[in-house]
Description:
The protein is mainly α. It contains 19 helices and 9 strands. Among the domains are: 91-210, Glutamyl-tRNA Synthetase, Domain 3 (Glutamyl-tRNA Synthetase, domain 3, Alpha-Beta Complex), CATH 3.90.800; 380-492, Arc Repressor Mutant, subunit A (Orthogonal Bundle). The strands form 4 sheets. It has a 3-stranded antiparallel beta sheet with strand order 3-4-7. Strand 1, helix 1 and strand 2 (39-42) form a beta-alpha-beta unit. It is globular, with a radius of gyration of 27 Å. The protein binds glutamic acid (GLU). Glutamic acid binds at residues 11-13, 45, 215, 229, 233.
Amino acid sequence: MADRPVVVRIAPSPTGDPHVGTAYIALFNYAFAKQRGGKFILRIEDTDRTRSTKASEDMILASLRWLGFSWDEGPDVGGPNASYRQSERLDIYRHHVDTLVARGEAYWCTCAAERLDGVRKEQMARKENPGYDGRCRFRDPAEIKAERERGVAAVVRLKVPRGGDDPKKGNDGKAEPVKVRFTDLLRGELEFDTREIDDQVLLKSDGFPTYHLANIVDDHLMGVTHVMRGEEWISSTPKHVLLYQAYGWQAPAFAHLPLLRNADKSKVSKRKNPVSLSWFKEAGYFPDAMINFLGMMAFTFEDGREIFTLADFVQGFKLERVVLGGPVFDLKKLLWLNGRYLREQRSDEELVGYLQERLFSADYLKRVVSVVKERFEKSEDLIEYAPYFFTGTVSPAPEDLLVKSRSKKESMAIWEALAEKVDTQQDFSGPRVEELLNAFLAEKGLSAKELFMPLRWLVTGKKATPPLHDTMAVLGRERVRTRIRAGLAALHVLQEKPQPTT
Ligand code: GLU
Protein backbone atom coordinates (compact mmCIF):
# COMPACT_ATOMS: atom_id res chain seq x y z
CA MET A 1 0.00 0.00 0.00
CA ALA A 2 2.92 2.35 0.72
CA ASP A 3 3.49 3.24 -2.91
CA ARG A 4 -0.15 3.45 -3.94
CA PRO A 5 -1.35 7.03 -4.39
CA VAL A 6 -3.50 8.18 -1.50
CA VAL A 7 -7.24 7.95 -2.07
CA VAL A 8 -9.65 9.09 0.64
CA ARG A 9 -13.36 9.69 0.69
CA ILE A 10 -16.15 11.11 2.71
CA ALA A 11 -19.38 9.18 2.60
CA PRO A 12 -22.23 11.24 4.02
CA SER A 13 -25.73 9.83 4.32
CA PRO A 14 -28.27 12.33 2.93
CA THR A 15 -30.76 12.01 5.75
CA GLY A 16 -31.21 15.61 6.87
CA ASP A 17 -29.40 18.89 7.15
CA PRO A 18 -25.74 19.10 6.19
CA HIS A 19 -23.98 18.48 9.50
CA VAL A 20 -20.91 20.33 10.78
CA GLY A 21 -19.43 16.91 11.56
CA THR A 22 -19.42 16.13 7.82
CA ALA A 23 -17.43 19.30 7.12
CA TYR A 24 -15.00 18.51 9.95
CA ILE A 25 -14.32 14.99 8.62
CA ALA A 26 -14.14 16.37 5.07
CA LEU A 27 -11.49 18.88 6.13
CA PHE A 28 -9.15 16.28 7.58
CA ASN A 29 -9.60 13.93 4.63
CA TYR A 30 -9.18 16.73 2.10
CA ALA A 31 -5.98 18.00 3.72
CA PHE A 32 -4.54 14.50 3.96
CA ALA A 33 -5.21 13.79 0.28
CA LYS A 34 -4.18 17.17 -1.10
CA GLN A 35 -0.84 17.36 0.68
CA ARG A 36 0.06 13.94 -0.72
CA GLY A 37 -1.13 14.67 -4.24
CA GLY A 38 -3.90 12.11 -3.70
CA LYS A 39 -7.57 11.91 -4.52
CA PHE A 40 -10.56 13.07 -2.48
CA ILE A 41 -13.83 11.32 -3.31
CA LEU A 42 -17.35 12.27 -2.25
CA ARG A 43 -19.74 9.33 -2.11
CA ILE A 44 -23.38 9.51 -1.13
CA GLU A 45 -24.47 6.65 1.12
CA ASP A 46 -28.20 6.64 0.53
CA THR A 47 -29.06 3.04 1.30
CA ASP A 48 -31.50 4.03 4.03
CA ARG A 49 -34.46 4.27 1.73
CA THR A 50 -36.86 5.81 4.19
CA ARG A 51 -34.59 8.59 5.43
CA SER A 52 -32.50 9.55 2.38
CA THR A 53 -33.58 12.47 0.21
CA LYS A 54 -32.21 14.20 -2.85
CA ALA A 55 -32.85 17.58 -1.17
CA SER A 56 -30.50 16.59 1.63
CA GLU A 57 -27.85 15.43 -0.85
CA ASP A 58 -28.08 18.76 -2.69
CA MET A 59 -27.70 20.70 0.56
CA ILE A 60 -24.67 18.64 1.60
CA LEU A 61 -22.92 19.26 -1.71
CA ALA A 62 -23.79 22.98 -1.70
CA SER A 63 -22.58 23.44 1.89
CA LEU A 64 -19.28 21.71 1.22
CA ARG A 65 -18.74 23.86 -1.85
CA TRP A 66 -19.59 26.96 0.16
CA LEU A 67 -16.79 26.01 2.55
CA GLY A 68 -14.35 25.83 -0.35
CA PHE A 69 -14.08 22.09 -0.89
CA SER A 70 -13.92 20.42 -4.26
CA TRP A 71 -13.70 16.74 -4.95
CA ASP A 72 -12.03 14.67 -7.64
CA GLU A 73 -14.90 12.23 -7.97
CA GLY A 74 -18.48 12.56 -6.83
CA PRO A 75 -22.15 12.40 -7.81
CA ASP A 76 -22.09 15.82 -9.46
CA VAL A 77 -18.67 15.62 -11.14
CA GLY A 78 -18.65 11.93 -12.07
CA GLY A 79 -15.48 9.89 -12.27
CA PRO A 80 -14.15 6.48 -13.27
CA ASN A 81 -16.09 4.67 -10.54
CA ALA A 82 -19.51 6.23 -11.16
CA SER A 83 -22.13 6.11 -9.80
CA TYR A 84 -21.17 7.84 -6.56
CA ARG A 85 -24.65 7.32 -5.18
CA GLN A 86 -25.09 3.94 -3.53
CA SER A 87 -28.74 3.63 -4.49
CA GLU A 88 -27.53 3.50 -8.12
CA ARG A 89 -25.08 0.66 -7.46
CA LEU A 90 -27.47 -2.08 -6.35
CA ASP A 91 -26.33 -4.52 -9.07
CA ILE A 92 -22.75 -4.18 -7.89
CA TYR A 93 -23.69 -5.05 -4.30
CA ARG A 94 -25.90 -7.92 -5.39
CA HIS A 95 -23.07 -9.36 -7.44
CA HIS A 96 -20.68 -9.07 -4.52
CA VAL A 97 -23.12 -10.65 -2.10
CA ASP A 98 -23.58 -13.59 -4.45
CA THR A 99 -19.80 -14.01 -4.61
CA LEU A 100 -19.59 -14.14 -0.86
CA VAL A 101 -22.39 -16.70 -0.59
CA ALA A 102 -20.70 -18.82 -3.29
CA ARG A 103 -17.44 -18.68 -1.34
CA GLY A 104 -19.23 -19.95 1.77
CA GLU A 105 -18.52 -16.72 3.63
CA ALA A 106 -22.14 -15.59 3.83
CA TYR A 107 -25.55 -17.29 3.89
CA TRP A 108 -29.19 -16.61 3.16
CA CYS A 109 -31.41 -16.34 6.19
CA THR A 110 -35.21 -16.56 6.18
CA CYS A 111 -35.79 -16.07 9.90
CA ALA A 112 -38.87 -13.95 10.41
CA ALA A 113 -38.86 -10.82 12.54
CA GLU A 114 -41.09 -12.51 15.16
CA ARG A 115 -38.62 -15.35 15.57
CA LEU A 116 -35.70 -12.93 15.92
CA ASP A 117 -37.69 -11.00 18.53
CA GLY A 118 -38.34 -14.16 20.50
CA VAL A 119 -34.66 -15.14 20.36
CA ARG A 120 -33.66 -11.67 21.55
CA LYS A 121 -36.07 -11.79 24.48
CA GLU A 122 -34.80 -15.19 25.61
CA GLN A 123 -31.19 -14.00 25.37
CA MET A 124 -31.98 -10.91 27.42
CA ALA A 125 -33.73 -13.06 30.02
CA ARG A 126 -30.54 -15.14 30.24
CA LYS A 127 -28.52 -11.90 30.48
CA GLU A 128 -26.66 -12.72 27.26
CA ASN A 129 -25.70 -10.24 24.56
CA PRO A 130 -28.63 -10.19 22.16
CA GLY A 131 -27.79 -11.32 18.65
CA TYR A 132 -28.66 -13.68 15.86
CA ASP A 133 -28.44 -17.29 17.05
CA GLY A 134 -27.10 -18.63 13.77
CA ARG A 135 -30.08 -20.86 12.93
CA CYS A 136 -29.94 -20.47 9.15
CA ARG A 137 -26.18 -20.76 9.16
CA PHE A 138 -26.59 -24.48 9.87
CA ARG A 139 -29.68 -25.28 7.89
CA ASP A 140 -29.59 -27.06 4.55
CA PRO A 141 -29.10 -24.28 1.94
CA ALA A 142 -31.43 -26.16 -0.43
CA GLU A 143 -34.24 -25.84 2.12
CA ILE A 144 -33.66 -22.12 2.44
CA LYS A 145 -33.52 -21.77 -1.33
CA ALA A 146 -36.91 -23.48 -1.63
CA GLU A 147 -38.34 -21.07 0.94
CA ARG A 148 -37.01 -18.10 -0.97
CA GLU A 149 -38.50 -19.47 -4.17
CA ARG A 150 -41.85 -19.68 -2.39
CA GLY A 151 -41.49 -15.96 -1.71
CA VAL A 152 -40.36 -16.03 1.92
CA ALA A 153 -38.47 -12.80 2.67
CA ALA A 154 -34.74 -13.37 3.11
CA VAL A 155 -31.58 -11.49 3.99
CA VAL A 156 -27.92 -12.42 3.51
CA ARG A 157 -25.73 -12.60 6.60
CA LEU A 158 -21.98 -12.67 7.06
CA LYS A 159 -20.58 -15.90 8.52
CA VAL A 160 -18.58 -14.29 11.29
CA PRO A 161 -15.77 -16.70 12.29
CA ARG A 162 -16.65 -18.30 15.61
CA GLY A 163 -14.56 -19.96 18.28
CA GLY A 164 -14.16 -20.39 22.01
CA ASP A 165 -17.35 -20.75 23.98
CA ASP A 166 -19.59 -19.48 21.23
CA PRO A 167 -21.35 -22.75 20.36
CA LYS A 168 -24.86 -21.38 19.95
CA LYS A 169 -23.73 -19.20 17.11
CA GLY A 170 -21.69 -21.98 15.60
CA ASN A 171 -18.30 -22.81 16.93
CA ASP A 172 -16.15 -23.24 13.85
CA GLY A 173 -14.16 -25.90 15.70
CA LYS A 174 -11.65 -23.48 17.14
CA ALA A 175 -10.96 -23.84 20.84
CA GLU A 176 -9.93 -20.24 21.33
CA PRO A 177 -12.10 -17.16 20.87
CA VAL A 178 -11.53 -15.54 17.48
CA LYS A 179 -10.06 -12.04 17.52
CA VAL A 180 -10.22 -9.35 14.86
CA ARG A 181 -7.40 -6.84 14.92
CA PHE A 182 -6.64 -3.68 13.05
CA THR A 183 -4.35 -0.74 13.46
CA ASP A 184 -5.93 2.65 13.93
CA LEU A 185 -3.39 5.24 12.80
CA LEU A 186 -4.35 7.42 15.77
CA ARG A 187 -4.91 4.79 18.43
CA GLY A 188 -2.59 1.88 17.66
CA GLU A 189 -3.69 -1.74 17.50
CA LEU A 190 -7.30 -2.45 18.45
CA GLU A 191 -8.64 -5.93 19.11
CA PHE A 192 -12.21 -7.20 19.11
CA ASP A 193 -13.62 -10.62 20.01
CA THR A 194 -16.01 -12.09 17.44
CA ARG A 195 -18.31 -13.24 20.25
CA GLU A 196 -19.30 -9.58 20.39
CA ILE A 197 -20.08 -9.46 16.68
CA ASP A 198 -23.37 -10.60 15.26
CA ASP A 199 -23.68 -12.42 11.92
CA GLN A 200 -24.18 -9.10 10.18
CA VAL A 201 -26.93 -8.60 7.66
CA LEU A 202 -25.26 -7.65 4.37
CA LEU A 203 -28.25 -7.59 2.05
CA LYS A 204 -31.68 -6.57 3.28
CA SER A 205 -34.86 -8.30 2.15
CA ASP A 206 -35.67 -5.35 -0.15
CA GLY A 207 -32.47 -5.98 -2.11
CA PHE A 208 -30.67 -2.98 -0.62
CA PRO A 209 -27.27 -3.53 0.93
CA THR A 210 -26.57 -2.57 4.53
CA TYR A 211 -24.09 0.18 5.36
CA HIS A 212 -21.34 -2.35 6.12
CA LEU A 213 -21.47 -4.16 2.81
CA ALA A 214 -21.93 -1.14 0.56
CA ASN A 215 -19.26 0.81 2.40
CA ILE A 216 -16.51 -1.77 2.05
CA VAL A 217 -17.39 -2.84 -1.50
CA ASP A 218 -17.23 0.79 -2.57
CA ASP A 219 -14.08 1.59 -0.64
CA HIS A 220 -12.43 -1.40 -2.31
CA LEU A 221 -13.68 -0.69 -5.83
CA MET A 222 -12.90 3.02 -5.54
CA GLY A 223 -9.33 2.23 -4.46
CA VAL A 224 -9.61 3.94 -1.08
CA THR A 225 -6.29 3.68 0.78
CA HIS A 226 -7.19 5.52 4.00
CA VAL A 227 -10.52 5.58 5.77
CA MET A 228 -10.65 8.62 8.05
CA ARG A 229 -13.98 8.93 9.79
CA GLY A 230 -15.57 9.78 13.12
CA GLU A 231 -14.91 7.59 16.11
CA GLU A 232 -18.56 6.54 16.28
CA TRP A 233 -17.66 4.07 13.53
CA ILE A 234 -14.94 2.24 15.50
CA SER A 235 -17.29 -0.57 16.46
CA SER A 236 -18.15 -1.06 12.77
CA THR A 237 -14.53 -1.41 11.72
CA PRO A 238 -13.99 -5.01 12.96
CA LYS A 239 -17.02 -5.99 10.87
CA HIS A 240 -15.44 -4.28 7.90
CA VAL A 241 -12.12 -6.02 8.52
CA LEU A 242 -13.94 -9.38 8.59
CA LEU A 243 -15.56 -8.50 5.28
CA TYR A 244 -12.22 -7.61 3.71
CA GLN A 245 -10.90 -10.96 4.94
CA ALA A 246 -13.92 -12.80 3.55
CA TYR A 247 -13.29 -11.27 0.12
CA GLY A 248 -9.54 -11.73 0.36
CA TRP A 249 -9.02 -7.99 -0.19
CA GLN A 250 -6.49 -5.76 1.45
CA ALA A 251 -8.18 -3.46 3.96
CA PRO A 252 -7.42 0.27 3.84
CA ALA A 253 -5.68 2.01 6.74
CA PHE A 254 -8.09 3.36 9.37
CA ALA A 255 -8.03 6.53 11.44
CA HIS A 256 -10.97 7.41 13.66
CA LEU A 257 -11.16 11.10 14.46
CA PRO A 258 -12.52 12.30 17.81
CA LEU A 259 -16.15 13.41 17.80
CA LEU A 260 -17.12 17.04 18.21
CA ARG A 261 -18.51 17.62 21.69
CA ASN A 262 -20.66 20.10 23.57
CA ALA A 263 -19.00 21.81 26.53
CA ASP A 264 -20.49 19.10 28.80
CA LYS A 265 -18.65 16.52 26.63
CA SER A 266 -21.83 15.07 25.17
CA LYS A 267 -21.83 14.50 21.42
CA VAL A 268 -22.86 17.64 19.50
CA SER A 269 -26.48 17.45 18.58
CA LYS A 270 -29.08 19.82 17.27
CA ARG A 271 -30.89 19.72 20.61
CA LYS A 272 -28.11 21.66 22.29
CA ASN A 273 -26.44 23.62 19.50
CA PRO A 274 -26.97 24.48 15.90
CA VAL A 275 -25.15 21.81 13.89
CA SER A 276 -26.49 22.46 10.42
CA LEU A 277 -24.09 24.08 7.97
CA SER A 278 -27.13 25.80 6.45
CA TRP A 279 -27.75 27.48 9.79
CA PHE A 280 -24.19 28.80 10.03
CA LYS A 281 -24.42 30.10 6.49
CA GLU A 282 -27.80 31.75 7.17
CA ALA A 283 -26.61 33.22 10.45
CA GLY A 284 -23.82 35.04 8.62
CA TYR A 285 -20.73 33.05 9.53
CA PHE A 286 -17.91 33.25 7.01
CA PRO A 287 -16.87 30.01 5.30
CA ASP A 288 -13.17 30.69 5.88
CA ALA A 289 -13.82 31.31 9.59
CA MET A 290 -15.79 28.04 9.74
CA ILE A 291 -12.91 26.12 8.12
CA ASN A 292 -10.45 27.75 10.49
CA PHE A 293 -12.63 26.77 13.44
CA LEU A 294 -13.09 23.16 12.28
CA GLY A 295 -9.34 22.89 11.73
CA MET A 296 -8.80 23.82 15.37
CA MET A 297 -10.88 20.85 16.45
CA ALA A 298 -8.50 17.98 17.12
CA PHE A 299 -5.48 19.77 15.64
CA THR A 300 -2.97 22.47 16.54
CA PHE A 301 -0.20 23.86 14.37
CA GLU A 302 3.34 23.38 15.62
CA ASP A 303 3.85 27.15 15.71
CA GLY A 304 0.61 27.61 17.66
CA ARG A 305 -1.03 29.86 15.06
CA GLU A 306 -4.76 30.27 15.40
CA ILE A 307 -5.65 32.00 12.16
CA PHE A 308 -5.20 29.90 9.04
CA THR A 309 -6.73 29.27 5.63
CA LEU A 310 -7.75 26.01 4.00
CA ALA A 311 -4.52 26.13 1.97
CA ASP A 312 -2.48 26.62 5.17
CA PHE A 313 -4.25 23.67 6.73
CA VAL A 314 -3.54 21.48 3.70
CA GLN A 315 0.12 22.40 3.99
CA GLY A 316 0.54 22.11 7.73
CA PHE A 317 -1.74 19.22 8.66
CA LYS A 318 -0.05 16.21 10.23
CA LEU A 319 -1.99 13.14 11.22
CA GLU A 320 0.35 12.51 14.13
CA ARG A 321 -0.60 15.87 15.65
CA VAL A 322 -4.28 14.96 15.91
CA VAL A 323 -5.38 15.24 19.54
CA LEU A 324 -7.82 12.55 20.63
CA GLY A 325 -9.48 14.26 23.63
CA GLY A 326 -13.02 15.30 22.63
CA PRO A 327 -12.74 18.67 20.84
CA VAL A 328 -15.31 21.12 22.17
CA PHE A 329 -17.45 22.69 19.48
CA ASP A 330 -17.49 25.99 21.29
CA LEU A 331 -19.81 28.46 19.61
CA LYS A 332 -18.36 31.37 21.58
CA LYS A 333 -14.97 30.62 20.11
CA LEU A 334 -16.46 30.40 16.63
CA LEU A 335 -18.17 33.75 17.12
CA TRP A 336 -14.90 35.29 18.32
CA LEU A 337 -13.13 33.87 15.29
CA ASN A 338 -15.82 35.12 12.94
CA GLY A 339 -15.43 38.57 14.47
CA ARG A 340 -11.71 38.47 13.81
CA TYR A 341 -12.34 37.51 10.19
CA LEU A 342 -14.87 40.29 9.91
CA ARG A 343 -12.45 42.92 11.27
CA GLU A 344 -9.14 41.64 9.93
CA GLN A 345 -9.88 39.76 6.75
CA ARG A 346 -12.58 41.89 5.12
CA SER A 347 -12.41 45.38 3.66
CA ASP A 348 -15.24 47.82 4.36
CA GLU A 349 -16.47 47.29 0.80
CA GLU A 350 -16.55 43.56 1.36
CA LEU A 351 -18.49 44.05 4.57
CA VAL A 352 -21.03 46.22 2.80
CA GLY A 353 -21.47 43.48 0.23
CA TYR A 354 -21.77 40.93 3.00
CA LEU A 355 -24.47 42.91 4.83
CA GLN A 356 -26.34 43.59 1.65
CA GLU A 357 -26.32 39.96 0.76
CA ARG A 358 -27.27 38.73 4.23
CA LEU A 359 -29.74 41.33 5.50
CA PHE A 360 -30.58 43.86 2.84
CA SER A 361 -30.64 42.05 -0.47
CA ALA A 362 -33.27 43.30 -2.90
CA ASP A 363 -34.78 39.85 -2.87
CA TYR A 364 -35.06 39.68 0.91
CA LEU A 365 -36.35 43.24 1.30
CA LYS A 366 -38.97 42.49 -1.31
CA ARG A 367 -40.19 39.56 0.73
CA VAL A 368 -40.20 41.63 3.92
CA VAL A 369 -42.04 44.47 2.23
CA SER A 370 -44.62 42.13 0.76
CA VAL A 371 -45.74 41.09 4.26
CA VAL A 372 -45.40 44.41 6.10
CA LYS A 373 -46.40 47.05 3.58
CA GLU A 374 -49.90 47.42 5.00
CA ARG A 375 -48.41 48.34 8.34
CA PHE A 376 -45.79 51.07 8.02
CA GLU A 377 -45.85 54.68 6.91
CA LYS A 378 -42.22 55.68 6.42
CA SER A 379 -38.88 53.96 6.10
CA GLU A 380 -37.66 54.03 9.68
CA ASP A 381 -40.97 52.68 10.95
CA LEU A 382 -40.16 49.42 9.26
CA ILE A 383 -37.24 48.62 11.53
CA GLU A 384 -39.24 49.68 14.56
CA TYR A 385 -42.28 47.71 13.52
CA ALA A 386 -40.53 44.55 12.44
CA PRO A 387 -36.98 44.39 13.86
CA TYR A 388 -37.25 40.61 14.00
CA PHE A 389 -36.60 40.41 10.25
CA PHE A 390 -33.14 41.85 10.80
CA THR A 391 -31.95 40.28 14.04
CA GLY A 392 -30.65 36.83 14.83
CA THR A 393 -32.52 36.38 18.08
CA VAL A 394 -35.55 37.94 19.74
CA SER A 395 -36.20 38.27 23.46
CA PRO A 396 -39.78 37.56 24.44
CA ALA A 397 -40.64 37.24 28.12
CA PRO A 398 -40.56 33.52 28.95
CA GLU A 399 -44.09 33.65 30.44
CA ASP A 400 -45.41 34.71 27.06
CA LEU A 401 -44.16 31.44 25.62
CA LEU A 402 -46.55 29.32 27.67
CA VAL A 403 -49.34 27.86 25.58
CA LYS A 404 -52.67 28.98 26.99
CA SER A 405 -53.96 26.73 29.79
CA ARG A 406 -50.94 24.45 29.47
CA SER A 407 -48.24 23.92 32.05
CA LYS A 408 -44.62 24.80 31.40
CA LYS A 409 -43.85 21.14 30.83
CA GLU A 410 -46.71 20.72 28.36
CA SER A 411 -45.79 23.94 26.57
CA MET A 412 -42.21 22.79 26.24
CA ALA A 413 -43.35 19.47 24.82
CA ILE A 414 -45.40 21.39 22.25
CA TRP A 415 -42.45 23.57 21.20
CA GLU A 416 -40.17 20.54 21.13
CA ALA A 417 -42.62 18.79 18.80
CA LEU A 418 -42.91 21.87 16.61
CA ALA A 419 -39.11 22.16 16.39
CA GLU A 420 -39.02 18.57 15.12
CA LYS A 421 -41.57 19.43 12.43
CA VAL A 422 -39.66 22.54 11.36
CA ASP A 423 -36.43 20.52 11.28
CA THR A 424 -37.81 18.21 8.62
CA GLN A 425 -39.76 20.81 6.60
CA GLN A 426 -37.40 21.62 3.74
CA ASP A 427 -39.85 23.72 1.71
CA PHE A 428 -40.52 26.69 3.98
CA SER A 429 -42.72 28.79 1.70
CA GLY A 430 -45.80 30.55 3.15
CA PRO A 431 -48.38 27.98 1.97
CA ARG A 432 -46.24 25.06 3.22
CA VAL A 433 -45.75 26.69 6.62
CA GLU A 434 -49.50 27.31 6.82
CA GLU A 435 -50.13 23.62 6.10
CA LEU A 436 -47.55 22.62 8.65
CA LEU A 437 -49.14 24.80 11.34
CA ASN A 438 -52.66 23.60 10.57
CA ALA A 439 -51.59 19.97 10.67
CA PHE A 440 -49.79 20.68 13.93
CA LEU A 441 -52.92 22.26 15.49
CA ALA A 442 -54.95 19.21 14.53
CA GLU A 443 -52.33 16.80 15.82
CA LYS A 444 -52.04 18.55 19.18
CA GLY A 445 -55.73 19.33 19.56
CA LEU A 446 -54.99 23.05 19.89
CA SER A 447 -56.94 26.01 18.57
CA ALA A 448 -55.22 28.62 16.42
CA LYS A 449 -55.76 31.13 19.20
CA GLU A 450 -54.07 28.95 21.78
CA LEU A 451 -51.00 28.25 19.70
CA PHE A 452 -50.46 31.31 17.57
CA MET A 453 -50.21 33.87 20.32
CA PRO A 454 -47.24 32.31 22.11
CA LEU A 455 -45.78 31.19 18.79
CA ARG A 456 -45.85 34.76 17.56
CA TRP A 457 -43.97 35.86 20.68
CA LEU A 458 -41.57 32.98 20.20
CA VAL A 459 -40.53 33.68 16.62
CA THR A 460 -40.81 37.48 16.55
CA GLY A 461 -40.67 38.73 20.15
CA LYS A 462 -43.73 40.88 19.34
CA LYS A 463 -47.40 40.72 20.12
CA ALA A 464 -48.61 41.85 16.71
CA THR A 465 -47.18 40.81 13.35
CA PRO A 466 -48.37 40.16 9.81
CA PRO A 467 -49.95 36.69 9.34
CA LEU A 468 -47.84 34.22 11.23
CA HIS A 469 -47.15 31.69 8.46
CA ASP A 470 -46.04 34.40 6.04
CA THR A 471 -43.88 36.00 8.69
CA MET A 472 -42.27 32.64 9.47
CA ALA A 473 -41.70 31.94 5.78
CA VAL A 474 -39.87 35.26 5.34
CA LEU A 475 -37.83 34.67 8.49
CA GLY A 476 -36.82 31.32 7.04
CA ARG A 477 -36.50 27.90 8.55
CA GLU A 478 -33.10 28.41 10.15
CA ARG A 479 -34.12 31.52 12.09
CA VAL A 480 -37.43 30.01 13.12
CA ARG A 481 -35.90 26.92 14.54
CA THR A 482 -33.15 28.82 16.31
CA ARG A 483 -35.83 30.92 17.98
CA ILE A 484 -37.88 27.91 18.98
CA ARG A 485 -34.79 26.34 20.53
CA ALA A 486 -33.93 29.63 22.27
CA GLY A 487 -37.51 29.83 23.58
CA LEU A 488 -37.20 26.30 24.93
CA ALA A 489 -34.02 27.26 26.75
CA ALA A 490 -35.75 30.33 28.23
CA LEU A 491 -38.72 28.23 29.37
CA HIS A 492 -36.41 25.67 30.84
CA VAL A 493 -35.21 28.14 33.48
CA LEU A 494 -38.61 29.77 34.03
CA GLN A 495 -39.93 29.28 37.56
CA GLU A 496 -43.50 28.17 37.22
CA LYS A 497 -46.07 30.07 39.27
CA PRO A 498 -47.86 27.76 41.67
CA GLN A 499 -51.39 26.99 40.43
CA PRO A 500 -53.90 29.08 42.38
CA THR A 501 -55.78 26.93 44.85
CA THR A 502 -59.54 27.25 44.68
N1 GLU B 1 -22.44 6.88 5.70
C1 GLU B 1 -21.62 7.01 6.87
C2 GLU B 1 -21.90 8.36 7.48
O1 GLU B 1 -23.00 8.79 7.38
C3 GLU B 1 -20.17 6.84 6.48
C4 GLU B 1 -19.27 6.39 7.57
C5 GLU B 1 -17.92 6.05 6.99
O2 GLU B 1 -17.19 6.98 6.67
O3 GLU B 1 -17.65 4.87 6.82
O4 GLU B 1 -21.11 9.02 8.07
